[in-house]
Amino acid sequence: IQTRRRMTCVMCVGRKLRCDGGRPRCSNCETRSLACQYQEHPRRRGPGKAPKGSRGKKAGRKSAADPDMAGPSGAP
Question: What sign does the dihedral 28-30-31-35 (CA atoms) show?
Answer without folding.
Answer: positive
